[in-house]
Amino acid sequence: MDINLILSAQTLSLAPNIRRSGLKNGIIVLKNIQARTYLRVTPEQWQILSKFETPNMVPTMLGNAIRDRECLALGESYELILKALNARILLEPGVEPEQMSAFDWQAKVRASVLERPLLILFLAGMLMAIVFHPKLPITFVDWAGGLVLLSAALSFGEFLSACMIRDAGGEVYRPRWQWLALPPHFMIDMDDVVMLKPHEQLVVAIANPSILAAAAGIAAWHEPGLAFFSLLGLIYSLRPIFGGRIASLIHVGKNHAPSDAEHDYVFPPNRHPRARVRLMTKAISQATSWARIGYGVLWTLALLYWGGRLTLTPPWTLAFWQADGIRIAVAIGGSLAIMGVSYLLWEMYHWIRAAGRERRNTMGLWKKRWFGNNVAQLDESGRQKILTASPLFSTMPPPKRMELARTMAVRKYGPWTGIAEAGDTPTHVAIIVSGKVSLRRKLPTGRTVQVQVLSEGDVIGLHDLADPKYPGYRLRSLTPVTLLTVERATVQGLIMSSVPQTTLVDAVLKRPFLRRIGLCRNWHLQAVHRFARLSAITDYPQGEAILSEGQTVEDFFVIFEGDAKVSRDGRGLATIHAGDFFGEIGLMQNSSPNASVTAHHRTRCLRIPRVELLRFVTHNYTVALEIERVSSERLGRPLFPLKVGDFRSI
Q: CATH class for domain 3-91?
């Protein structure tokens, strides 16, 4: 599955044969009838999937959802789409899921008719198994008879389940005799039980335990040696983990059950340790989780009880609990503690691995800059590769690029030194091969201020052409620096004739700036280039309103140089500086700002129109997630989904 293609350019459509269950515990179950696949979603998630009833691309769908104020948290939206594709709820063009036919099951019985008899069987069987004394199988008759009894009980329970599912409108799949099971017994695939009403699901779930309890109780009364396997099957059928059906139906409180998009993530950014911690925190806060843990403790105590019954060690006596109660409590508590510690250690491993990878990349770049500068002279092929990778020089014809590579020379500078290529009239053009360089502009007062930091791949010596309004600048190395230089007279005519002015501005001014600011730091390089191409540099005189309180937001702004004042009702709130951005919350939430932003001192902004920003964000999921994260931190609450009162933000 090519996630980038699916989330950016692939047309998807809702499968034609979709059946929906009723709302239960806040969840709707979607079924692709033809493929026999299921997906659990919330009503809000179904609203997103229903936008694909007309074939659509994911960016278009997200743009419509943002416009209509129906957008979910973006990570949840992407997860939902990928899970829906896996479940064949959404289909790619030309993809037809394999047909899975249901069995024509004729026998039917209403769940409400069997509910009371099954409950009576379960309670009576448990009572008989307690009153009478089951025994471990010793003779061949005990072994063979116990397995036959277990096989019959399991088969009859499966038969009753199939009849109830069919009567409730569900489908029965693959009825068969499972010879490789222990013991061999009749069974069906009861996947369609999730489409039933909660009450019907519960009755279907207790069918097998009720029959097994009755079999164990009758056997304990008539022939105790035959009861062991039925009792074992009963305990297994009531298991709290590993697919236990009863435990999965426990729901307490008003919190809805998790949808399939809220766990077992397949979208890579959702598998970040922060997401898993968030999921664990949500699970701990829900009463249902604690109810299931309590059910697990009761199941463990019942297992100990029956173990004591079978081994002639009465667990209901005071002497038993005086002798072994502390050990049992420690064993249960220790098991829960081990599970919790194991989970925390696993999450810590993922966090350390992610942090270590990021740290390793940072240290590798630092080592290259400070200790990898004494490398041999770059040969011609190496210089050609650097020129080809440059967004500016890659636009030149290959023969001219090869000729330029032959004439370029390597120059090196130590840290914190002035670079000779700088000045009001640069004499050379250079590409930074390694290191960091401070770009400084001289103010009318004579003082110089840093306006940018340049690094690997950036071009120097052309800033006066890219930004003729501010031609004078100085360069100073911040680390050891290696440059590929060429005389400006050699390339100026070639650049001016073959490189558009917009490309020059993007490569020399915008891209180096965007790569350094926090908003774009985690973006893919292609996304940075696209953002630079879409944006325009706009100058604002001091005191001019850039964004006005209460008015419709039409642009997204990033302060390129200088600073601006934020105010509300004429009262100053903050000063924002180069690299800060504003307007994105109003654009993403389709709302108006509750504060004004006014130019203060040498204010220049990168400005992107609303339509272009939404198109850009929805086509780049890494960008969308980063903007959502930063905006949510600024708001102090999630950017999506929208709630009442969320429609006025800066």
A: alpha beta
